[in-house]
Amino acid sequence: MSSINSRSMPRSASLKAIADWFWSDPERHRRGRHDLVAARCEIIAHVLHELGAPDETLA
Questions:
Q1: pTM (two decimals)
Q2: Angle at the Cα of 24 (from 31 to 14), degrees rounded to 5?
Q3: Do 41 and 58 touch, CB atoms closer than 8 A?
Q4: d(CA 22, CA 49)
């Protein structure tokens, strides 16, 4: 995930880039399809981490 430099992107672009990253992996995609709420939480947790504001309750 560190390959995405979201500090220089608008927040919506960060969300899109990380969501694309999440859904591009077949195993994450399979897990995410079975639990969309958990997938959303994982994506948002990555976004917050990349923006420098991690939230451990989402991890």
A1: 0.71
A2: 105
A3: yes
A4: 14
Give residues with Cβ within 8 angstroms of 48, minimum separation 6: 54, 55, 58
* Rounded CA Rg of the chain: 11
Residue 11, C-beta contacts closer than 8 angstroms, at least 6 positions apart: 47, 51
Rounded distance between C-alpha atoms, residue 26 and residue 7, angstroms: 27
- Residue 51 phi/psi, 5-degree rounding, is -85, 0
Q: Tokens 């948002």 map to which residue? A: 44
pLDDT for 16-44, tens place per residue? Answer: 999 999 999 999 999 999 999 999 999 99
Dihedral sign from CA coordinates of 56, 11, 23, 35: positive
